[in-house]
Amino acid sequence: MRYLQYIGLALPLMMVISATAAPSIQSEPIQPLSKPLIKNPAMVELGKKLFFEPRLSKSGFISCNSCHNLATGGSDNLTSSIGDHWQQGPIRSPTVLNSSLNVAQFWDGRAKSLQEQASGPIANPKEMASNHVLALDVLRSIPAYVNEFDKVFGHKQISMQEVTRAIAAFEETLVTPDSHFDQWLKGNKKALNTQELRGYQTFKTAGCVACHNGPAVGGNSFQKMGLVAPYQTSNPAQGRAGVTGKDADRMAFKVPSLRNVALRAPYFHDAGAPTLEAAVTTMGQLQLGRSFSQQEVGDIVAFLHTLTGQQPRIVLPILPASSNNTPRPTPFN
Amino acid sequence: MRYLQYIGLALPLMMVISATAAPSIQSEPIQPLSKPLIKNPAMVELGKKLFFEPRLSKSGFISCNSCHNLATGGSDNLTSSIGDHWQQGPIRSPTVLNSSLNVAQFWDGRAKSLQEQASGPIANPKEMASNHVLALDVLRSIPAYVNEFDKVFGHKQISMQEVTRAIAAFEETLVTPDSHFDQWLKGNKKALNTQELRGYQTFKTAGCVACHNGPAVGGNSFQKMGLVAPYQTSNPAQGRAGVTGKDADRMAFKVPSLRNVALRAPYFHDAGAPTLEAAVTTMGQLQLGRSFSQQEVGDIVAFLHTLTGQQPRIVLPILPASSNNTPRPTPFN
């Protein structure tokens, strides 16, 4: 959607500047990321606290950052996440970086927005295993939180509405601009070396760019995993079909953004590809019906490394202390 | 030891300034914390990465910061820590804040230094559950780490010696100066209110200060838990006796620092006291043979709140990506 809108805007521009010879941003299917605009710093700061808040979980041990670790590319980089009581999650956790650019949240897009997404894991018995009543009781019992919600929202009644809005406001700031590729897009032709450029050309000509396009290099559509040949996996996830109920959506997953993809092996919703090389090879075979040569794989992987941008600089929040009335975590029952 | 050394220095000073009427730092049994001197910023930065590094655990999920969370007072504030496969730890995790001031590390003092301490949890099957061979294999497989160790230590051979030295260097910076009480000690008589001052007087006259003294307000000696009357607990920890083998050391634990104590309920090695009020009451009964009145408890608790200092401002490290050769985490086997 965003990409289509962009094209709508870009076409007239392209005609205006078509006289210039060098490739321009407008002629590329990928656009550079912009630094996030922070509209409400106080809300972002509160959202950051909540993102790092382990007391939103039943155990007092798991926070949003546990599975979307901002020290490691916004994800846990495990084959599947670890939830309350060490339960194995059903799927590989997606990165929170640049997630505001996604058409929807979760691999199956079942949450329309970051705000809608944020309430899910808190109450999921396999993830943070709390519930919204308990999570709100915890926050309401901590005077510093009550005051901070008041400052941000103008009232002291904390509901999940405010909690998830603040978390989403923080997550919207987690954008990673200024990758080598973005520098190249903006006109610094030395930002990519020959192999990286060759990789980008192959990425375009082979058709990867059909799904991985736009500012996030993906994230803006759902596609069937295993288009040309079926994807072999023991993971039972059926993707988009679970949301739409349509058989045609079976194995349709959100196309992941390739921004910072080099930071977060393993790949795919089932973590079936341990390396970028394996992921590129499989994608070529199953989505494009094409066996990439070893050199092509190496070139594309070199290009993908240029999508690693400037990671957000996060000052760890100092969370307010529990009061005597704060419900205590119960990790072992 | 540190405290005794300090007294040795302080006594001559006290004589020099004894003519001044106002209470001076030198006449108090607690001294203000100083800002940490950072001798080797590159080593501290590397140590910070390692402190937040989940790949030092078998699961790829647990880092030093999991149980010594710098967002929550340097500890997890659970009754006992959560280790690999959600194993319940034997004891309440001590805070890493101001831990450089401790006479020794762990509740039973079995590690002489922060450096010695740091290697323990990585290989403890109930904690991070890795082993030193695997942890080093992980670090050695990541080129950015190899380069950073080279920059800091002048060679590319990474051993546990360098790993733990860097972690300790980071931990040494985790000091919390400038509490209200420190401001008061330094001469700002408005920094404490009447109740807080009364609490401090009771803290001194009742004898709490016999163990909780020095810059860390504790941390500099081992004392029997249950001096006047035995401490009732289902926790099997026997304290210092496990290290010295002496029956006399049974139930002797390191006196915890009371710096920032208001941030980290529950209290005691077994987390037996859910609130500061409960902890003060129990300490009075079992260590001093004294039943504090409700007002005395309230006063002492008010004083203890003034020991919350300036928390270290930690910029979350951006950890280098795994390479294709990095051993992958194995959280579920």
Helix-strand sequence of chain A: HHHEEHHHHHHEHEHH
**How is the largest sheet of chain A built, in terms of strand order?**
1-2
- Name the overall outline of chain A: globular
Oligomer: homodimer
End-to-end distance of chain A: 45 Å
Major β-sheet profile of chain A: 2 strands, antiparallel
Decide which structural class fits the backbone of chain A: mainly alpha
* Rg of Cα set of chain A: 21 Å
Features:
homodimer, mainly alpha, two-stranded antiparallel sheet, 12 helices, disordered N terminus
Describe this structure in words.
2 copies of one chain form a homodimer. Chain A is mainly alpha-helical. Chain A contains 12 helices and 4 strands. In chain A, the strands form 2 sheets. In chain A, strands 1-2 form a two-stranded antiparallel ribbon. Chain A has a two-stranded antiparallel ribbon with strand order 3-4. In chain A, strand 1 and strand 2 form a beta hairpin. In chain A, helix 2 crosses helix 7, helix 9 crosses helix 12 and helix 11 packs across helix 12. The first copy, chain A, starts with a helix and ends in a 28-residue tail after the last helix. In chain A, 49% of the residues are buried. The N terminus of chain A is likely disordered. Chains A and B meet through loops of A and loops of B.
